[in-house]
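Service request form, structural biology core

Requester: graduate student, group of Dr. S.
Request type: structure prediction, single chain
Budget code: on file
Notes: please return the result as structure tokens.

Sequence provided:
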Amino acid sequence: MSQQQIAENLELAFAQKGFAEPSVAELKTLSGVSMRTLYKYFPSKESMVVGALNHRHQRYIALLEECAQQSGLDATLSAFDVLGGWMKEHAPKGCLSVNALAAFPDNVEINSTVEQHKQQVIDSLAKLSGHEGLSDALFVLHEGTTTAYPILGESAITAAKVAITTLFSTHSTSNKKGIQQ
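Core staff response, request fulfilled:
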């Protein structure tokens, strides 16, 4: 089994069981490999978390990139539709990256992995929206949606999309005023 396949299995295990519960022995079983093979690729539980987070990151960013077939507001709304599907299918308990930070607050490698992921989400939202100046606001909406989703479900996506539409409208209006002056 490849390192990528093991990382995929670890991602699934952490998404289902969290970070505190599964022991390395259980992670070995859930990964479908021997302890020797698991430790060959991931020599500690923390490195298993990083491997799982990196695998998840690649999958999520690839989904966001598919939204680039559109542009501006449409692409941004599409990204939040993608987020809704992602939350429903892959993250009903919330953002795995945020959960990893909570479980391993002092681990430099995990913190760095999460920061890199979140920065790429910011960059992706800026690119999709076509408005670099909205990237922070869109990221706050994205992260708020991932936090609210376990409680509100699809209503969190709907609320975020209303806020995005308002944000774009307000941003367009203020840009027009700035040009006229």
